[in-house]
Design brief:
The protein is of the alpha/beta class. It folds into two domains: about 60 residues, no CATH class; about 160 residues, Rossmann fold, CATH 3.40.50.300. It has a five-stranded parallel β-sheet. Strand 3, helix 9 and strand 4 form a beta-alpha-beta unit. The longest helix is centred in the N-terminal third of the chain and has 28 residues. The chain is globular and about 75 Å long. The termini are far apart. The chain binds adenosine-5'-diphosphate and magnesium ion (MG). Magnesium ion binds next to helix 6 and strand 3. Adenosine-5'-diphosphate (ADP) binds next to helix 6 and helix 12.
């Protein structure tokens, strides 16, 4: 039984984890005096672990997160306005499966993007395709595609992921045409894909963001239908961390320095 033949078969079957770790795995099996069934279990487990890891890596790179953030890395004590129970429930990604909306609202620096990336990561771990983009980038993409006669293609692309994370809605107001294009995206995803929106504006102020009251109502109607809202109050985490380290005393020091 030539060894490279086994190697070739494992390659052909795409069992690359078993192929690469075969000696170690067989030694481990021999040491533990495993039955054949147990050995098969050990080999399959190694392969499944490798495939899962690859799938997650691929999902993370497709998602285009702007940074690496996890729920484990989020200090709930630093942000008492957030209900940890609600975030833990959202971490199960049931809302993603249902095609619901999550709104993370609050002033700058309170951890909206952190939580958005972390919840996106949880969704990927559970097998849901995810795409992260800023509201500005989505609008720019839609407007450009519209001008170039490729709107349909872009809408299809943005409607495909099971979860679309739209970061920083409201930092810049939309132009009238843009609000209408955004509405088309929201309505295409409605009750199919899940959407997570972060915003520094309250929902009541979104009408002003979209620039057109009728379109704003239509967008809100769909976004808020099955929604979970996390409103974060309090100070910027960044400033708080600096204050704690004694780098700055308070917000006015920062304002004076910049
Ligand atoms: P926002 O999107 O609300 O403006 P970010 O999510 O970008 O704020 O948070 C700013 C920085 O502070 C990020 O580096 C983020 O990881 C960190 N941060 C914010 N809140 C927390 C927290 N409660 N625990 C740990 N890190 C936090
Ligand atoms: Mg942010």
């Amino acid at each position: 039984m030539p060894e490279d033949e086994l190697d070739a078969m494992l390659t052909r079957l795409k069992l690359t984890a078993i192929r690469d770790q075969l000696d170690t795995l067989l030694e481990q099996a021999a040491r533990a005096d495993m039955t054949l069934r147990e050995v098969l279990h050990l080999l399959c487990a190694a392969e499944v672990a490798r495939k899962d890891e690859r799938r997650i890596q691929m999902g993370m790179s497709i998602a285009k997160f702007p940074c690496v953030r996890t729920l484990e890395g989020f200090e709930f004590e630093a942000q008492p306005s957030i209900d940890p129970k609600l975030v833990r429930e959202l971490a199960t990604s049931r809302w993603v499966a249902n095609g619901d909306t999550v709104l993370l609202l609050g002033p700058p620096g309170v951890g909206k993007t952190h939580l958005a990336v972390a919840l996106g990561r949880e969704a990927i771990l559970r097998g849901y395709s995810t795409l992260f983009a800023s509201a500005t980038s989505i609008v720019t993409q839609l407007v450009r595609a519209h001008t170039e006669g490729r709107l349909e293609e872009r809408l299809t692309h943005l409607a495909k992921p099971k979860l679309l994370v739209i970061d920083e809605l409201g930092y810049l107001p939309f132009e009238a045409n843009a609000a209408h294009l955004f509405f088309q995206l929201v309505s295409r995803r409605y009750e199919r894909g899940a959407t997570l929106v972060t915003s520094n504006r309250s929902v009541a102020e979104w009408g002003g963001v979209f620039g057109d009251a009728v379109v704003a109502t239509a967008i809100l109607d769909r976004l808020l239908h099955h929604s979970h809202v996390v409103t974060i109050r309090g100070d910027s985490y960044r400033l708080k961390a600096k204050r704690k380290s004694g780098l700055v005393r308070d917000t006015t020091t920062i304002a004076a320095a910049t």
